[in-house]
Amino acid sequence: MSVSTYPLTTLARTTDPTTMLRRFLGLDAVVTAGNGLAYVAASGPLGRFLGVDSGLLLGLGVFLTLYGAGVGYLASRKSPPTLGVRAVIEGNAAWAVLSVVALFAWLSPSTAGTVWVPLQAVTVGGFAALQYAALRALRV
Question: What are the transmembrane regions (predicted)?
Fold first, then answer.
């Protein structure tokens, strides 16, 4: 085990890079799809609470649910394809950056929304970082 993968092995509780990657993808899928389903099921109340248009939340919810299902499919593969994993990493990184940009450029959220948007951006960015590190560990 290399020194660079040690923190990952602690988080994933395994030294196998493929298992680490699958676990990080699986956690991402559960969180993303769960968030998407919440947006779909409660776009009105959540929109009012977060100060975000309920139509926007509904659309994002559908997208996140489908995206989460796709990430879950990758996580279920014995050996997730590198191209698919890279697409997830890049998508997560883009989501994190665009969330922060949207907070300042387009959205006028409530106090709760002002806390929620960066919090979910950090979470999604964290998934991207973990997945990237696990993917790199596969190639070492």
Answer: 21-42, 54-75, 87-107, 113-135
